[in-house]
From TrEMBL:
InterPro entries: WH-like_DNA-bd_sf (IPR036388), WH_DNA-bd_dom (IPR027395), WH_DNA-bd_sf (IPR036390)
Protein name in the entry: Transcriptional regulator
Pfam family, one: HTH_34
Organism lineage: Bacteria, Pseudomonadati, Bacteroidota, Flavobacteriia, Flavobacteriales
Source taxon at top rank: Bacteria
Domain named Winged helix DNA-binding: residues: 16-94
Amino acid sequence: MKSLLENINKAFDHRIRLAIMSVLMVNESADFNTLKELLGVTDGNLASHTRALEAEEYIVIEKSFVGRKTNTSYKATKKGREAFQEHLNALEKLANLSISR
C-alpha cells in the first residue's frame, strides 16, 4: 500500500507558497503587488517564497517595465500546475479518508 503522504508536496507545505500557487492556478499571471496585497505579506517574505517555487520550476518570474517602473509578474509552469494538482488530489484523498473498524 502506498503511503498516504506520498503525493503531499513539501514545496507547498508553507501557507504562503500554497496561496501563491492557488492564485496562479486560477489566473494566467499575477504581479508582485497584487500577490502582496492578496496575501498580506511583506516584500521580503513574498520574494523568498516565489524564489523557492521558481527553484522547483513551479513558477516563472517575468520582469518588465511599465513606464519607468519595473513590474514583476509570476506564472505557473506546466510542471507547477501538475505538481499542485497532484498535491490537491492527495490532500483530498487524505481529507476523505474513512477508517472502518
